[in-house]
Amino acid sequence: MERLQKVLAHAGVASRRQAEKLIMSGHIKVNGAVVTELGTKVGVHDKILVDNVPITTETPVYMLLYKPRGVISTAHDEKKRRTVVDLIEDVPQRIYPVGRLDYDTSGLLLLTNDGELANRLTHPRYEVEKVYVARVTGIPSNDAMRQLRQGITVDDDHYAPAKSKVLSADKKKQTAIVQLTIHEGRNHQVKKMLEAVGYPVEKLKREQYGFLTLKGLQPGESRHLKPEELKELKRLTGLTK
Predict the structure, then answer these.
(1) At 113, which CATH number?
(2) Computed from CA positions of residues 41, 45, 46, 48, in that sequence, does the dihedral angle turn out positive or negative?
(3) Residue percentage of the chain with pLDDT more than 90
(4) Distance CA 166, CA 169 (A)
(5) Which end of the chain has the lower number of beta carbons within 10 A, N or C?
(6) What pLDDT, on a 0 to 100 scale, did the predictor assign at position 25?
């Protein structure tokens, strides 16, 4: 017997956190009855429906996308805006983004139907590093960079220490290019951290996720992960040794 949300995640319905939301909001039926309890366990013979559609075990898919600005990091958007899933062609399985990038943020985004891997990649426990490059207003001081490396608190939220450095500065325009490496993935985190030390973000890009980079891709392009890349991701998140 397995927890219902875990079964839904493995079936590619959604990440485990998203599956929990589906359960609590009444979208899931087990053997004809709506289930809203997160502790529910199911077996191989139970019939599970998502919005009255039976789940099936899909072939795992692992994609790397160079997300352009102006695209929503979700599988579906109620406002009918373009989503990252719309950019993936010739993939019949239901895939969804691992974490998110803001609408106006570009860069590396993973998409999959492997709920267990997605859950681990987004969990701060596994400390998978993410490298961002930002253009900021102003030229950051050494003290500001030191604050980021020590960790900061913004509106009662504490952000873990980040690796930070100024890559270049334009004294005439009073802007700078800053690199920030974090292992958390909280909402608007990079923007909030840089603004908290006095340097608002004008433009933001995620250049690296763990060991993965955007090499060979243009904005809007995607590719399947290589077997050795998938193996390393699973090793980083404790799914394999």
Answers:
(1) 3.30.70.580
(2) positive
(3) 66
(4) 7
(5) C
(6) 93
Residue 79 CB partners (closer than 8 Å, separation 6+)? none
**102 belongs to the catalytic site:** yes
Residue 22: predicted pLDDT:
92
CB-CB contact of 206 with 107 (8 Å) = yes
Separation CA 235–CA 241 (nearest Å): 5
For 74-228, where are the E strands, in sequence order? 96-97, 105-112, 130-137, 152-154, 157-159, 163-170, 175-182, 201-209, 212-213, 222-224
Does residue 241 belong to any structural domain of this protein? no
What stretches in the chain show pLDDT beneath 50?
none
Task: Give yes or no for a contact between 9 and 119, defined as CB atoms under 8 angstroms apart.
Answer: yes
Q: Give the CATH number of the domain where residue 188 resides.
A: 3.30.70.1560
Q: Which two tokens stand for residue 156?
A: 């009662």
Q: Which domain holds residue 112?
A: 62-124+211-236
Sign of CA dihedral 221, 225, 229, 233: positive
CA-closest candidate to residue 225, choices 125, 108, 142: 108
The CA distance from 35 to 196, in Å, is: 43
pLDDT for the residue 178: 98
Catalytic residue among 102, 104, 155, 157: 102
Residue 136: its pLDDT value, please?
98
Q: What is the predicted pLDDT for the residue at 153?
A: 92
What 8-state DSSP symbol labels residue 83? B
